[in-house]
Design a protein that fits this description.
Length: 136
């Protein structure tokens, strides 16, 4: 097991946060607002609380990815750089997005909302994998 690239961990979490601002701003902000209605985007939380919870979740995911990539090792990742995207995207496609979709199905949320939010996590995880690749 190689050492965890802690710089990449923090930068990856930051990059995924920047993706969130784009995703829920110009790309899908209006569509999400149409689905949930004004004043309900953060639920009962203030916007700052929702941002803090999201930042914590992104940092936790980035720490996990950092350990995962360290476990694979720098030699393997140098020979097979596609593993950054395959592993990070695979986590999002097989665990994170389906968990969002199942939760939304139980809450009877719309398919459109589930696709917007599940899609964010897929893109965010791929962006984190790309960050690890660039800083690896």
């Amino acid at each position: 097991m190689g050492p965890v690239n802690w710089l990449a961990v923090f930068v990856a979490a930051l990059v995924a946060g920047v993706v969130a601002f784009g995703w829920y701003g110009p790309l899908f902000g209006r569509a999400k607002l149409e689905e949930v209605g004004p004043g309900r985007l953060a639920g009962r939380r203030r916007p700052g609380q929702a941002i803090a919870i999201t930042a914590g979740a992104l940092l936790l995911a980035a720490v996990m990815m950092g350990h995962m990539f360290a476990r694979v090792g720098p030699q393997t990742l140098e020979m097979k750089p596609w593993l950054y995207f395959m592993m990070s995207g695979g986590l999002a496609l097989t665990f994170v997005a389906p968990a969002v979709w199942v939760s939304y199905a139980h809450m009877r949320a719309s398919t459109r909302l589930a696709l917007i939010d599940g899609g964010y996590w897929i893109v965010a995880y791929l962006a984190m994998g790309g960050t690890f690749w660039l800083l690896g």
